[in-house]
Amino acid sequence: MEIVSHIREFVHASIKKSGGEKVTPATSHKESFYQAKIIKWLKDTYPSAFVWKAAAGPYSRGGIPDICAIIDGRFFGFEVKRPGIGKLTKLQEQTIKQINAAGGFAAVVSFPEDARMIIIKQKISEHTKTAIHVGQVHRDLLQRLNSAEETLLILEKVTGLTGQELIEKFLAGFELTREVQR
Questions:
Q1: How many helices (H) and strands (E) are present in the chain, helices listed first?
Q2: Could you tell me the CA-to-CA distances from 149 to 5, 65, 167 in Å, in that order?
Q3: Alpha-carbon span 107 to 132, nearest angstrom
Q4: 28: helix, coil or strand?
Q5: CB atoms within 10 A of CB 90
Q6: Whole-angstrom Cα distance, residue 129 to residue 145?
Q7: Cα–chain-centroid distance for residue 143?
Q8: Which of helix, strand or coil describes residue 64?
Q9: Between the CA of residue 78 and those of 68, 122, 154, what are the distances in Å?
Q10: What is the dihedral of CA 141, 145, 150, 155, to 10 degrees?
Q11: For domain 28-124, which architecture applies?
Q12: Distances in Å between the alpha carbon of 176 and those of 28, 143, 151?
């Protein structure tokens, strides 16, 4: 039901009255309203996450996203903008790019659902990378297995022992060089 009210608010903010005057409904909220909703959602959904509201001031770095969170060991920065109205500054755009380039995840959001989608995209991306890595490791292991099988065949020819005998001797710590020399 909350999403429906957000959609209504967005639509109402875009509708003009017959006199050409923009509608500013009573439900039009400041950015802090959206920030509070997102922070609450993050804390409720990810109770073990570290979530904080970035404070702006003379000694802080400019452009840092409004809400920062560490979820499952991953950094997320959420720059909150009012739906349909808010715009990023150049510094905010640059900071979001820098966070993403450094391996974090930063994006512009207005609603908890936006933050949820960013987190889901990150998890899908990470699972995809893991699957690709596992596939590469699997291929590498197959190549090594093939190489080991080839080596075993060569040792069988050189020593006159069967593969099973070679493996048993290897496991017993037997030096094959002595067998070959005899």
A1: 6, 4
A2: 66, 55, 12
A3: 25
A4: coil
A5: 8
A6: 24
A7: 31
A8: coil
A9: 6, 13, 60
A10: 120
A11: 3-Layer(aba) Sandwich (3.40)
A12: 82, 24, 13
In the chain the first and final C-alpha atoms are separated, in Å, by 85
- Each domain of the chain, given as residue ranges in start order, spans 28-124, 131-181
User: Contact 78/117 with Cβ under 8 angstroms?
Assistant: no
Report yes or no: 155 and 166 within 8 Å, Cβ to Cβ.
yes
Alpha carbon of 101 to those of 14, 74, 147: distances in Å?
A: 34, 14, 39
- Give the pLDDT of residue 22: 46
- In three-state secondary structure terms, 83 is coil
Q: Residues 6 or more apart from 41 whose CB is under 8 A from it?
A: 112, 115, 116
DSSP string, 119-167: HHHHHHHHHHHHHHHHHHHHHHHHHHHHHHHHHHHHHHHHH---HHHHH
**CB 84, CB 14: distance < 8 Å:** yes
Q: Residue-wise pLDDT tens for the chain (182 aa)?
A: 555 454 555 554 444 333 444 444 445 789 999 999 999 999 999 999 999 999 888 888 999 999 999 999 999 999 999 998 899 999 999 999 999 999 999 999 999 999 999 999 998 888 787 777 777 777 777 788 778 888 888 888 888 888 888 888 877 876 655 555 55
